Amino acid sequence: MAEAEEQETGSLEESTDESEEEESEEEPKLKYERLSNGVTEILQKDAASCMTVHDKFLALGTHYGKVYLLDVQGNITQKFDVSPVKINQISLDESGEHMGVCSEDGKVQVFGLYSGEEFHETFDCPIKIIAVHPHFVRSSCKQFVTGGKKLLLFERSWMNRWKSAVLHEGEGNIRSVKWRGHLIAWANNMGVKIFDIISKQRITNVPRDDISLRPDMYPCSLCWKDNVTLIIGWGTSVKVCSVKERHASEMRDLPSRYVEIVSQFETEFYISGLAPLCDQLVVLSYVKEISEKTEREYCARPRLDIIQPLSETCEEISSDALTVRGFQENECRDYHLEYSEGESLFYIVSPRDVVVAKERDQDDHIDWLLEKKKYEEALMAAEISQKNIKRHKILDIGLAYINHLVERGDYDIAARKCQKILGKNAALWEYEVYKFKEIGQLKAISPYLPRGDPVLKPLIYEMILHEFLESDYEGFATLIREWPGDLYNNSVIVQAVRDHLKKDSQNKTLLKTLAELYTYDKNYGNALEIYLTLRHKDVFQLIHKHNLFSSIKDKIVLLMDFDSEKAVDMLLDNEDKISIKKVVEELEDRPELQHVYLHKLFKRDHHKGQRYHEKQISLYAEYDRPNLLPFLRDSTHCPLEKAFEICQQRNFVEETVYLLSRMGNSRSALKMIMEELHDVDKAIEFAKEQDDGELWEDLILYSIDKPPFITGLLNNIGTHVDPILLIHRIKEGMEIPNLRDSLVKILQDYNLQILLREGCKKILVADSLSLLKKMHRTQMKGVLVDEENICESCLSPILPSDAAKPFSVVVFHCRHMFHKECLPMPSMNSAAQFCNICSAKNRGPGSAILEMKK
User: Fold this and answer.
1) Cβ atoms within 10 A of the Cβ of 164, count?
2) How open is the CA angle 380-382-385, to the nearest 5 degrees?
3) What is the residue range of 368's domain?
4) From 703's CA, which of 390, 422, 484, 633 has a CA 20 to 30 Å away?
């Protein structure tokens, strides 16, 4: 009946490349594949008329009256020749052990697949539907219904005889039936009825909406979502009905249950099948379209939609057009939608094809993302669901992502992703590096190469370094700084740099990099030489870090020229490694640097460089006169005569004055201040420092004929010399600037001195009185004498062992104690006694005595 078609078994999406869904960027919710193997063989010679699904197997009925049991892959496991004509419906109980079959010639069979029990009956009209009790396997539930022109309920009695009862008739052929729990739903030409098998009552009648459609061409589709929710699809209308218990007060003569339509909406196309999917619906639709060329109606591909029912409308979640075999010749009644509740599998049955739709899993989601070249999202999805994915590996997705980025020219992003994707796989790292080399993008991957765990072959790192050395000196230098020196063969890179320096010997970047390479190679001498040539700031750090003081003994001048402050600090901090003598000798030809070194040495320790203090006089005089006078003041080792000679030669007055005073020639020093500097304030200050009356006399004599000097003396002399001595010598008639102010100041200073003396006297008297009172209180206190005290003379206990005996003890205020007989007799001149121990000292607290007698 069906023509053979050359079409490979596989994913249905491969055969629907013309569909608009594939053009969309929205990911489909379901995936499709043809049921192949035995099904393909069957449908090449026959056509499918009906199908039912169990969790363990499938049952397929054909137009030639055959029933095939299939596994879920479509392999034939059993075959039954039921009738020579079309099988209208197959029904299975929940256990999958009993099957009911009805055919177009009126035959009805109900039999056990694994037992011998069987029911056969042939009616005089076509039997369109059959439904066995869901729990037919139980002895109490041996029931099934059939439908042709009337709906019959067959029930086995206690004597194993089958009896039938008419549940409904008179409204045309029964064309659809679904049995769930205790409820049977069926559809005839007028509408849908529901029968309660327990109460033996029909509880509702749902009329069909569009009576213009032929019920045989557009049959009703019924589907139980659960034990109380029935979904009805007829024409373009969908109704969701809920069976509810009626309140006892409302029953009267009404059934105990009633039906409420909770959702009702219209679809765009004719419904061929329904199935629940969580809180959504899967709808198989028969589609007719009008040709733009002929303007005639034709059969288009059927659609499988997932919709979200609302109270009066619905929301489309996804929609797929299916290219099933022979869809151009099919009618609405030729399609059926069966489903497996346990696995959410949906079977689209047509005469020449069976297609399985299933919910897409994470692997399918990743497939779609990869197909749409959304590699980053695919990688993220794989990482999140790595325990659930079966067909994909994170690494494979990552490698595909890297290849995609490279093909797109995003080399930097591709290189950055290598870190995360390749991880610690050294072999993959090396493979990717060679790929980047082939496209000339080694620079892009260089920042992200692993530098430890894993470590790649040295050749990989050398290859990248050579790439930078040929085109980017700065980038090369950066890599040398950032990469550990053990990643590559250092000598190979050193030679390469030296070869480049032959062409550009003054390139500072290459020189600096070469110095770093020498450092990695522990060739510190060469590195130091380059750093000094370049005057590089790291030279001091290099010396300290690697203890290169033996290498810099002949490079001290270079270091000082580069940074004298740092060089001097380093040399002084490490004088145990480079002696002061060695440094001074090396700097002999550079006295200005010698001075910097010796000056810093003197600041640190005035005595360490004492042998060079004579030399330093000349150095200070030549290069640093402001520090000469402080040096002369602080140094106790410089020869004064030599310093005096140098200062006289250079006419350094202040320094000469200081040296004259140091040498004891204060009068000459004062004379030089007066004659050379003409600075009365400095002369007065000098006289104050020396505190010599003769100097003051010389100063007065020199100033007596110089009014400005006299003013200076009058203002400052009052606290050191009697101002009368100066005033008596002032010639009459001499004009002295600010004389009145000076005299007022002298008087004020005198008054201040008087006040100070009086204040000091008062303080002295008060303190003396306070101390006297304190001493008196102290001496008036009692002194404890017990058995532990001893006589300071005979060293025996101060108190006798026999308390009844008379004794005499003398206790001095100094707390020394004596037996009276141990003390010497007082002299005739003074009756006072003094402590023998304290008698060598001035008479004090120990001079008074306290005598105890008994």
Assistant:
1) 12
2) 110
3) 360-451
4) 633
> Which pLDDT belongs to residue 24?
54
Alpha helices in 539-677 (DSSP H): 539-546, 556-562, 564-573, 580-586, 591-604, 613-623, 628-634, 640-649, 653-662, 666-672
pLDDT at 21: 42
DSSP state letter for 735: -
Q: Is the peptide bond before 28 cis (omega within 30 degrees of 0)?
A: no
pLDDT at 578: 87
Structure confidence at residue 414 (pLDDT): 92
**Selection from 339, 341, 369, 366 nearest residue 355 by Cα:** 339
List, for the chain, all residue ranges whose pLDDT scores fall below the cut of 70: 1-25, 677, 679, 681, 687, 691-694, 697-735, 738-739, 742, 746, 827-832, 840-854
User: In Å, what is the CA distance from 785 to each residue of 779, 780, 792, 812?
Assistant: 15, 15, 13, 12
Hey, what are 631's tokens?
A: 């040096």
pLDDT at 22: 44
Number of domains into which the chain is organized: 1
Task: Quote the pLDDT of residue 733.
Answer: 61
Burial class (CB in 10 A: 0-12, 13-18, 19+), 95: middle
Q: What CATH number does the domain containing 398 carry?
A: 1.25.40
Q: Cβ(595)–Cβ(619) under 8 Å?
A: yes
Three-state secondary-structure class, residue 348: strand
Q: Are strands 345-350 and 353-359 parallel, antiparallel or unpaired?
A: antiparallel
Whether 796 maps to a domain, the answer reads: no
Backbone angles phi, psi at 478, to 5 degrees: -65, -45
Tokens 């659809």 map to which residue?
176
- Give the pLDDT score at 300: 92
Position 393 in a domain: yes
Gap between the Cα atoms of 715 and 219, Å rounded? 133
Alpha carbons 29 and 446: distance in angstroms, whole number: 42
Strand order in the sheet with 48-53: 48-53, 58-62, 66-70, 76-81
Q: Is 296 helix (H, G, I), strand (E, B) or coil?
A: coil
CB 71 within 8 A of CB 102: no
In a domain, 366, yes or no: yes
| Structural domain contains residue 304 | no
- For 535, half-sphere exposure in the C-beta direction (CA atoms, 13 angstrom radius) is 7
The C-alpha atoms of residue 785 and residue 499 are separated, in whole angstroms, by 102
Supply the pLDDT for residue 704: 67
Tokens representing residue 653 in the block: 């007055």
